[in-house]
Amino acid sequence: MNIQYIEDLAAGQRYGSGRLTVAPERIKAFAAEFDPQPFHLDEAAARDTLFRGLAASGWHTAALTMRLLVDGEFRPAGGIVGAGFEELRWPRPVRPGDELHIESEILEVRISKSRPDQGVVKVRTTTFNQADEPVQVFTGNLIVQCRPAAAAQAEAS
């Protein structure tokens, strides 16, 4: 898919991704390094917690979502460069064997007044499991480059 400059983007556009399967050993490895809590590290210990079984860290889910974004259909000019989040939530846990995919929806597009070569795109990205149940939802603001002046002039002629 082609790179999308800010001029190519409009509210309501949707972009998808491929799929990624979550292996239990990856859940444990991520948790061991970054979020070492029993419900992320050990099946037996996890059974006696709120999660009632092994669950991926929310931060692991966020990292998996980033991978799906980078490999997905949404290709903003300049890369996926975040300028902050307005919302981040995990409505249900990610479990071993879950197959994740994402859908990103453009909510708002605006050219920067102070930097006319770029703008801000508000995007809601929902990560789904194999049953199409949301496991993560975030609304973020991305910095997206404008089409270079030379390319814009060539397209106009």
From TrEMBL:
Top-level division of the source organism's lineage: Bacteria
Pfam families for this protein: MaoC_dehydratas
Transmembrane portions of the chain: none
Domain spans labelled MaoC-like: 16-126
Entry-linked PANTHER family: BETA-METHYLMALYL-COA DEHYDRATASE, MONOAMINE OXIDASE-RELATED
Protein name: MaoC family dehydratase
